[in-house]
TrEMBL record, chains A, B:
Mg(2+) binds at D290, N320, I322. Keywords: Magnesium, Metal-binding, Thiamine pyrophosphate, Transferase. Substrate binds at H160, H397, R491, S518, H596, D604, H608, R655. Belongs to the transketolase family. It comes from Turnera subulata. Its cofactor is Mg(2+); Co(2+); thiamine diphosphate. The lineage of its organism: Eukaryota, Viridiplantae, Streptophyta, Embryophyta, Tracheophyta. One of its GO terms (molecular function) is metal ion binding. This is transketolase. One of its GO terms (cellular component) is cytosol.
Length: 798, 798
């Protein structure tokens, strides 16, 4: 059942309905008829989203069908809305409207364009008109979606038509009947989120965005599917296509992102909603397929979703029994329903998803009624529905149908239209979403303005979360250290930073994969985010690194001011690498707090000791790999991490205590590499010693030894290679003069990649084998990571 | 119920029992009494392992208790076995005995030492002696295990005492009562496998190996727990400690390894067992904890185990409600039992795992009776059982108890002994496992000798799987190519190799994570390994990359001659990186067939295009990263991969067609880097162009252009950096003369790491950003991976 679009009490809706006097254009009549098939037994019902109370209009007012139809009409014709009742006079819009920082080439003017008078609507459901015509229109819309996918894939001769053909009905119902969004501002804060976890079926989403009126997917964009620089790439990419929330394709990521989006909503709603204003209130919808279901990450994330009771997460499982290798019988015979029940989900099965519109609608209604559990709607569909020769086979999964089969499908589904055509009545039918969406946003903006008046402090916080604007002076919270400050493990220094920042950054929240007391990630002033305490900011992920990373991606992409952090041992980034890569690609500024960053963790041995991990992330695009050496560098790393909202930061932190080194600084970290000490002159030291993290101390000590012997020695901290790369040539030359080829690096990790830093004549001291189980000091010594080794190497090269 | 140790028909056992005349020493009487508590209602029963048929002795013979006891006695005293019946005369041992290639510092002499006359035993279960003393001995043994763990962790002041204290009862029952193994030959082929998936509890396994008589864990090894170069590292490592099957610690890996071990058993049993000889016949046991359960990889692997119906996989879930962050309630409230039922497992709950010996025994019996499903035995235990102040808390999970609490625990459990002490009666009790194990192996060897006589072809194949000795001349199966051979994608060439090799390598088996038709991994002469066709060699992993990798580790470590391969898109190595790292660390020679290895895959876009992956694996120790350019190089890569049984190989293969290049060769690949063409003389080209994989063609074409302009150009294929690194300095100089600094590399991946190859004056053409969605040719051009770019760079540097 549809909710009242308004969060105002039902009477407000009634009032509005009664005071409208428009006649209903033909296309809206059709729309109203469609409602009938949705739930013909229901009277016109207003449904308050959050508290699940119902007010049946037929029983509380003398509302007529005509009146109900009139009410709907408002939303289609704002300019003709001349008899606006008092309640419709909107307050001035707040100066922001839930905008995310502008995407590439997005049109901010169009996003901000709102109708002169925002309009309202309410959906009529008790109409008794003939359903045939309505269903015919729905089917035409559904077939439009199917053929947009078929034709775009055919044109590109590349792509995945099967899923869109099977999922078009649920896609239609979601975008046309259920979801609340504003096509002209894809970043409106309170929109419902949709995630296509089965990202290969992206033509489904592009078709829906196109029909809904998003500027990001115009007809020419559909025609450019999978082409260079198009807005319609081969898998959904949030950074390319406004309206796409997250980047999917790698299976299982999307459902986990959706858990993050739903977590963010639940947390923000708990923190900012007031009894008289549900300012945060949206659903998160997902479509996932068999592939997503098989991936371990989805089980991790869904186990957490069940644990957290994310009632506003509604996932559609496209149960089509086909994956790339053929029938799922060959590798996937588990009972998915039962597994999800075991994970604490509400499960509904729609047995005929190709045509069962009413069943899909009823399932969504049921899902919304279950507020303490996420819902899995298993929708049994036919992959490639409509293709007479390829439906229900793997051949329709990931290839164009081919001209002959496209024709046969057109024949079969009665589709006489040319490629990429949207019939006029379908266009007309969908056209209301632009004014409706604008009205929704205007409505919410008005609500926010009232909220702001009553709750200025909360509003200011929420605004900073919505806009991503960091509170002025936040960086003053960062701790600083002197060489006299006590030695401390950088993991502990990290906790000091996190706790300092949590007090000034309302968007900071996160936790660890069951290693909070080792990663030192607890925010001491907050409790645990749990089902019954969703306002808290310590997230307990359990031993689920991969799900954790992807959930954090969802949190980060929910709102620009949400700054999720997550933690495990550095070596276990291997478990979550696919999620970290998506952070980097999708510009999600997650902070990865990765402790136990070397053999320095000691006895746990080689399974727990990272070796190649620094190198492996330095090679990954758009990641900031930071390895601070002490207190100031840890603070600097957090400064950089917080400021970089469009790229993830990975902080590699020590288990073992490290001294506060003279010469380190926050500013130094911001440059990525800098001189911490130097007794040379004229930018011409005899030798440059380079270290990172825990080995910077060794470099510094070796320098002291060498200086005692009269050498001019520079010590450089190369805390972040990426940041250093971005510095000017002159700055780089000031740190690593081309003329000085005597360079020695030391780092407790692979030497891979250091060749470029130390040059042909330099030397790299590192570890190019697996670690060992023993006390840390012993391993350092046996592995030759010592002051003596650096001194010897320095003498060799200089 | 206990199985008959013998695989001979029951009558053989009876014969043997009747003809023995030994009296029973005191310690064996105790052992017999212990049986009573196991199943006091049973008569002495012989249980044929494989077909689950039972022959109750009491009903088929006049066997007396005394006779039964006598039967047991045989196994303890082989030297006094003077009245050997005919059936006990063993054939000469075959020249091999299921040996795996020798581990570091293992004593092959002790492993091969067998008693002069192998002995037999059968277990008596119908005795009616008093159980009290027996239970007391079991408890003493269990407490021995607990205190070995407590004391070793205390001595190291590092480690995880909690799990061993809670799991000691199930550990005792497994190693003392259930499992079939030979302590003096940890590599005996037909042993039961045990995996401690919760690897942090490794002191449990070390204590059990110690009690069972493995030479790898002597008292001095226990005292060296977690110390430099000890046999008892911080997590179980198969390459350090014979008796440890796989390397665990990273959670969830072990249970997935166990699925691989059980798959291997099921496959080999189906292929080699005969109606008259079950030559392959063992169980795989696992202990996993809450952490393993939360990891997605375990759900992936267990879903497959259920799908495959791995009835001889029995997993104990240590359900102790505590993980590092505290009570599992904070992050893990799913219904694990129900989830496993949904995955197709048989589930049993032992509610009192701390003391419920009989319940554990009964559960194992039940599990064995269910032959078409794997079994999860959920054993509810108390972490740190026995510690009066720390039991049932996270504080006992991963830290030494501390002297005071160790004392209190000694007091509480009535343990007066000094640290690391094994009471004499416990020693005596366990001492039979050495002769028993030797007998088991001798028995099996005899059986194999008979099998070999009857089925020489099968025996030869199985032998090569058991020993890892590759069939002579296998490499002749590798295809070769000339420049005239048609252009082909290396993924297709890979399939040609796989199909050629499968015919000569009986141990080759594997498959893809639902991308068989993209990865080109199907073995055309075989069907699918499935529940009802376990003899086949195409494995369908579903979309479960992480589980796939770990399952392949299990297969590889089952038998030296098993050569598992697995496949997905190269970019999705991110999903399975933790498993690949374990391949490398644990010396599992898995072949990773990774196709779609660059932007050359085209339209699928950046989520599917690897960039940093080559670099990230080049940095990982003990991995062979191979990127062949054409047919000969693909064959060469397979040759290297097959030969390297102790390190995994990753083959990066193209989606797109590539020409057969002049100058490539199998021999070249074996050197890692080699010259494919050169028009210089005196080892002094003007410029060296270096390429890998699909870009070698570009380098070759650029060389042609440059040569036309009169340049002396060398083209080097650097197909495997690791192999090249292992060549002699003189060979390296012959390829990359130090005097030639004009070097240009081209590779469709990150330039990270190339600095060392091209040197300070060289240039690297690569991709240091994410990919894009477009036809492949377009992306190559836009990204500057062109002949023109190489020519220009060559002119710049030379």
């Amino acid at each position: 059942m549809k909710s009242c679009w308004l969060s105002f009490p039902p009477l407000f809706c009634l009032h509005q309905i009664k005071s409208t006097k428009h006649t209903l254009p033909k296309k809206q009549r059709k729309r109203v008829r469609q409602r009938k098939s949705y739930n013909s037994k229901q009277h016109l019902t207003l449904h308050s989203h959050q508290n699940n109370t119902h007010t049946t209009m037929a029983s509380t007012s003398s509302l007529t069908l005509t009146q109900a139809l009139l009410a709907r009409a408002i939303s289609y014709s704002s300019s003709s809305d001349t008899t606006t009742p008092r309640a419709i006079h909107l307050p001035a819009l707040p100066s922001f409207s839930g905008l995310k920082s502008a995407p590439r080439a997005s049109s901010s003017s169009s996003r901000r364009r709102l109708p002169a008078r925002a309009t309202r609507r309410v959906r009529a459901q008790a109409v008794t008109l003939d359903a045939t015509a309505e269903t015919a229109l729905v089917e035409k819309s559904v077939n439009t979606i199917r053929f947009l996918a078929i034709d775009a894939v055919e044109k590109a001769n590349s792509g995945h038509p099967g899923l869109p053909m099977g999922c078009a009905p649920m896609g239609h119902i979601l975008y046309d009947e259920v979801m609340r969004y504003n096509p002209k501002n894809p970043y409106w804060f309170n929109r419902d989120r949709f995630v296509l976890s089965a990202g290969h079926g992206c033509m489904l989403q592009y078709a829906l965005l196109h029909l809904a009126g998003y500027d990001s997917v115009k007809e020419e964009d559909l025609a450019q599917f999978r082409q260079w620089e198009s807005r319609t790439p081969g898998h959904p990419e949030n950074f390319e296509t406004p309206g796409v929330e997250v980047t999917t394709g790698p299976l299982g990521q999307g459902i986990a992102n959706a858990v993050g989006l739903a977590l963010a909503e639940k947390n923000l709603a708990a923190r900012y909603n007031k009894p008289d204003s549900e300012i945060v209130d949206h659903y998160t919808y997902v479509i996932l397929g068999d592939g997503c279901q098989m991936e371990g990450i989805s089980n991790e994330a869904c186990s957490l979703a069940g644990h957290w009771g994310l009632g506003k997460l509604i996932a559609f499982y496209d149960d089509n029994h086909i994956s790339i290798d053929g029938d799922t019988e060959i590798a996937f015979t588990e009972n998915v329903d039962k597994r999800f029940e075991a994970l604490g989900w509400h499960v509904i099965w729609v047995k005929e998803g190709n045509t069962g519109y009413d069943e899909i609608r009823a399932a969504i209604k049921e899902a919304k009624a279950v507020t303490d559990k996420p819902t899995l709607i298993k929708v049994t569909t036919t992959i490639g529905f409509g293709s007479p020769n390829k439906a229900n086979s793997y051949s329709v999964h990931g290839s164009a149908l081919g001209a002959k089969e496209v024709d046969a499908t057109r024949q079969n589904l009665g589709w006489p239209h040319p490629p990429l055509h949207v019939p006029e009545e379908v266009k007309a039918h969908w056209s209301r979403h632009v004014p409706e969406g604008a009205a929704l946003e205007a409505e919410w903006n008005a609500k926010f303005a009232e909220y702001e008046k009553k709750y200025p402090a909360e509003a200011a916080e929420l605004k900073s979360i919505i806009t991503g604007e960091l509170p002025a002076g936040w960086e003053k919270a960062l701790p600083t250290y002197t060489p006299e400050s006590p030695a401390e493990a950088t993991r502990n220094l990290s906790q000091t930073n996190l706790n300092a920042l949590a007090q000034v950054l309302p968007g900071l929240l996160g936790g660890s994969a069951d290693l909070a007391s080792s990663n030192m990630t607890l925010l001491k002033m907050f409790g645990d985010f749990q089902k019954d305490t969703p306002e808290e900011r310590n997230v307990r992920f359990g031993v689920r690194e991969h799900g954790m990373g992807a959930i954090c991606n969802g949190i980060a992409l929910h709102s620009p001011g949400l700054i999720p952090y997550c933690a495990t041992f550095f070596v276990f980034t291997d478990y979550m690498r696919a999620a970290i890569r998506i952070s980097a690609l999708s510009e999600a500024g997650v902070i990865y707090v990765m402790t136990h960053d070397s053999i320095g963790l000691g006895e746990d041995g080689p399974t727990h000791q990272p070796i190649e991990h620094l190198a492996s992330f330095r090679a990954m695009p758009n990641v900031l790999m930071l390895r601070p050496a002490d207190g100031n560098e840890t603070a600097g790393s957090y400064k950089v991490a917080v400021l970089n909202r469009k790229r993830p930061s990975i902080l590699a932190l020590s288990r073992q205590k490290l001294p506060q080194l003279p010469g380190t600084s926050i500013e130094g970290v911001e440059k990525g590499g800098y001189i911490i000490s130097d007794n040379s002159s004229g930018n011409k030291p005899d030798v440059i010693l380079i270290g990172t993290g825990s080995e910077l101390e060794i470099a510094a000590k070796a320098a002291e030894e060498l200086r005692k012997e009269g050498k001019a020695v520079r010590v450089v901290s190369l805390v972040s290679w990426e940041l250093f790369d971005e510095q000017s040539d002159s700055y780089k030359e000031s740190v690593f003069p081309a003329a000085v080829s005597a360079r020695v690096s030391i780092e407790a990790g692979s030497t891979f990649g250091w060749g470029k830093i130390v040059g042909d004549k330099g030397k790299s001291i590192g570890i190019d084998r697996f670690g060992a189980s023993a006390p840390a000091g012993k391993i350092y010594k046996e592995f030759g990571l010592t002051v003596e080794a650096v001194v010897a190497a320095a003498k060799q090269v200089s």
